[in-house]
Amino acid sequence: MTAAKAAVVIWSADAAQSEWAMSEANRAREDHKLVQVATDTARLPMPFDTIQCADLAGWAGDTETPGWRNVVSSIGDLVGGAGSSPSRTTAVATAAKSTEPLLAVGVRQPLGRS
């Protein structure tokens, strides 16, 4: 995560209770590379509830959804995307081909679940 230019934290009710998710989100926040996504209506833990978070509760994969466009735009800004280019998705995909880690995504299952 240290070398990544962006870190996407995907919040859910379980993630909001996870010490690992909280720790990783806090590190990303301190490093100014946090992009937050909410997948349900659970309240975000403090201080993450004061930071912009894309609402993707019920998202069906439509790339024109405002929440998704916000995520792509934020990642593009952090990884050096194309600025005002109309296609941030292309800029993010191009940056992802780099040999350097640009994005860190951590997914942890709570203990006792598979």
Task: List the keywords.
114 residues, alpha/beta, 4-stranded parallel beta sheet, 15% strand
Please describe what this structure looks like.
- This protein is of the alpha/beta class and 114 residues long.
- The protein has one domain.
- Helices cover 34% and strands 15% of the residues.
- It is built from four helices and four strands, in the order βααββααβ.
- Strands 3-2-1-4 form a four-stranded parallel beta sheet, with helices on both faces.
- α3 (66-79) packs across α4 (88-96).
- The two termini are 24 Å apart.
What does this entry show, briefly?
This protein is an alpha/beta fold.
N-end to C-end Cα span: 24 Å
Major sheet details: 4 strands, parallel
Number of strands: 4
The poorly predicted ranges are 88-99
Provide the helix percentage.
Answer: 25-40%
The number of helical runs is: 4
The residue-averaged pLDDT reads 78
**In what range is the share of β-strand residues?**
5-15%
Sequence of secondary-structure elements: EHHEEHHE
Give me the Rg, rounded.
Answer: 14 Å
Question: SSE layout and pairings?
Answer:
Elements (H helix, E strand, L loop, with lengths): L5 E6 L1 H4 L2 H12 L3 E5 L14 E3 L10 H14 L8 H9 L6 E3 L9
Parallel strand pairs: 1-2, 1-4, 2-3
